[in-house]
Specification:
There is one protein chain. The chain is an alpha+beta fold. It has one domain: minor pseudopilin epsh fold, CATH 3.55.40.10. It contains one helix and eight strands, in the order αββββββββ. The strands form two sheets. It has a four-stranded antiparallel beta sheet with strand order 3-2-1-5, with helices on one face. Strand 7 and strand 8 form a beta hairpin. It is elongated and about 95 Å long.
């Protein structure tokens, strides 16, 4: 009789391997989803800081000023910050953006909620003067968090914009 070399896996080996893979995925997947949410918030926070910095630098560079406002489509101001936002310069001094005045539109991330607050001013828009200060003199605060922010998760970010135009970011926990 000849010895027959059979190649392959036994059913038990296959079941053990599948079980180990399932356990590892079960342990690793939740932390991977946390990392994805954290990266979404970091991206939106960086884009908001970039918009504020761009508007401020445009205001100091040219006499037309730099503006940032909530925008649904990048063509005009309106809506909430969660809908998107745009940076524009006021070439004709009418305090309304024209299509040729838009410097950059930031599209929204549907998984990120953005709330804005102003101490006395309009929370939906802001403008910088030639010195890089807020024209209306009211500080702003932007709060960014995932739409599914679990209580106690350190995924919330708060961007503070002082009267002098300095931008500051702080990490917070979800309520």
């Amino acid at each position: 009789m000849r010895a027959c070399n059979v190649r392959g896996f036994t059913l038990i080996e296959l079941l053990v391997t599948i079980s180990l893979v399932a356990i590892l995925l079960g342990l690793g997947l939740p932390s991977f989803q946390y990392a994805i949410r954290s990266n979404r918030i970091a991206t939106s926070t960086n884009e908001m800081q970039a918009a504020l910095t761009l508007a401020r630098s445009e205001a100091m560079r040219t006499p037309r000023g730099g503006h940032v406002c909530a925008s649904r489509d990048g063509l005009g101001c309106g809506g909430s910050w969660s809908d998107g936002w745009m940076v524009w310069t006021d070439r004709n001094n009418n305090d309304a953006p024209q299509s040729d005045e838009v410097l950059r539109y930031f599209a929204p991330n549907p998984q990120v909620e953005i709330d804005a607050a102003a101490t006395g001013g309009d929370a939906a828009q802001l403008a910088f003067d030639l010195r890089g200060r807020l024209k209306d003199g009211y500080p702003r605060r932007f709060t960014l968090k995932p739409a599914d922010c679990a209580a106690g998760a350190g995924l919330m970010r708060e961007i503070s914009l002082g009267v002098a135009g300095q931008v500051r970011m702080e990490r917070k926990t979800c309520p």
